[in-house]
Amino acid sequence: MRTKLLIIDPQNDFVSPSGSLCVPGADGDMDRLAALIDRIGAEIEAIHVTLDTHQRLDISHPLWWQDASGASPAPFTSFTAADVRAGTWRTRDPQAHARSLAYLEGLEASQRYPHVVWPEHCLTGTHGHAVWPALHAAIGRWEGEHLARAHYVWKGKNPWTEHFSAIRAEVIDPDDPHTQPDEAWIADLRDCDRLLVAGEALSHCVANTVRDLVDAWGGEADRLVLLGDTASNVPGFDGYGTAFVEELCARGMTLGSSDAA
Description:
Elements: E1 3-8, H1 12-15, H2 26-40, E2 44-52, E3 65-66, E4 77-78, H3 81-85, E5 90-91, H4 97-110, E6 116-117, H5 133-146, E7 151-155, H6 183-190, E8 194-199, H7 202-216, E9 224-227, H8 238-250, E10 254-256
Parallel strand pairs: 1-2, 1-8, 2-7, 8-9, 9-10
Antiparallel strand pairs: 3-5, 4-6
Helix pairs in contact: 2-5, 7-8
């Protein structure tokens, strides 16, 4: 059986208990995943790793926005296009206002997740952007044993759109190919008998990546195995994770575990 592994955003800011957007339980998730790679590495023909990648000035970070007094929104604040039109929130850079409002309107029209302002996380060049050490070491051992290179995909570099999914941005920028599906990569992921999926967070980046991947495959989900003990939810968003697992299992995805893969 040809097996590939897709690891979504296994980065210190999500995984470490001291990370800026810590997902409780993620350290155990990634330690279990590292053990799986060491245990069945000979069966894994390719490892794909996505990396959430931002800078401070980002539409989903506090610095982008301010209220009438000039204060930035607290992390985990959620607001709508109507709130921006009403003046409750506005962009700190006035020249960014129209495009930011259009983004929120596009996000709502797509019926994807509501806009949330997150703590600054996975900033380029920081410790928080790096892969969890135990997992990074296991990937390195797999590369050495198989004389193969893990494939790293950076997502989220465009500051004008959230980018939960590694397949496409929440709102595609027609001028930026990095926000659009990479058909060659999508085909590569499909070229296997079994695609194991792990990473953080189940409620957001795992859920949206897998949904978009299955849609790009024409709805085919039967080769996907979600390793349920290697992915956890952002606190307060457990319902998102539950809905995703129920939806994708109904479409053919298998819910597995790292010790039985």
